């Protein structure tokens, strides 16, 4: 956050361009049903690409593509065990957003 403006005698802090970009990309990540499904699964347990593919009935190429997108936003991280990559959540804040959105969608 960078510049401040006097807005009706109250201070208003504007968002800088980098913050705006990261926030918009985070919401973009959460706007895709496949990414939501992957994040929801990873919020519950660490998984390999194959485990994600099987659990969500998706193609391996689809899962890999979406994980790359999520990794670039630092929403997921991975660890290597031999030749297998295991993915897990990298940011609890985003999972909190996702859980709140799921809660909002599932109650009357």
Automatic annotation (TrEMBL):
Annotated InterPro entries: ArsR-like_HTH, HTH_ArsR_DNA-bd_dom, Metal_resp_trans_reg, WH-like_DNA-bd_sf, WH_DNA-bd_sf
SUPFAM superfamilies: Winged helix' DNA-binding domain (SSF46785)
Keywords per UniProt: DNA-binding, Transcription, Transcription regulation
Superkingdom field: Bacteria
CDD domains: HTH_ARSR (cd00090)
Domain named HTH arsR-type: residues: 15-108
Molecular-function GO terms, alphabetical: DNA binding; DNA-binding transcription factor activity
Coiled coil stretches, renumbered: none
PANTHER family (alphabetical): ARSENICAL RESISTANCE OPERON REPRESSOR ARSR-RELATED (PTHR43132), HTH-TYPE TRANSCRIPTIONAL REPRESSOR CZRA (PTHR43132:SF6)
Protein name: Metalloregulator ArsR/SmtB family transcription factor
């Amino acid at each position: 956050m960078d510049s401040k403006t006097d807005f009706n005698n109250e201070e208003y802090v504007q968002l800088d361009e980098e913050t705006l970009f990261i926030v918009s990309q985070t919401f973009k990540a959460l706007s895709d049903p496949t990414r939501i499904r992957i994040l929801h699964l990873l919020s519950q347990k660490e998984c390999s690409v194959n485990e994600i593919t099987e659990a969500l009935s998706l193609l391996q190429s689809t899962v890999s593509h979406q994980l790359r997108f999520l990794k670039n936003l630092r929403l997921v991280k991975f660890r290597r065990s031999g030749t297998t990559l295991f993915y897990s959540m990298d940011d609890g804040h985003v999972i909190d957003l996702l859980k709140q959105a799921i809660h909002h969608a599932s109650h009357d």
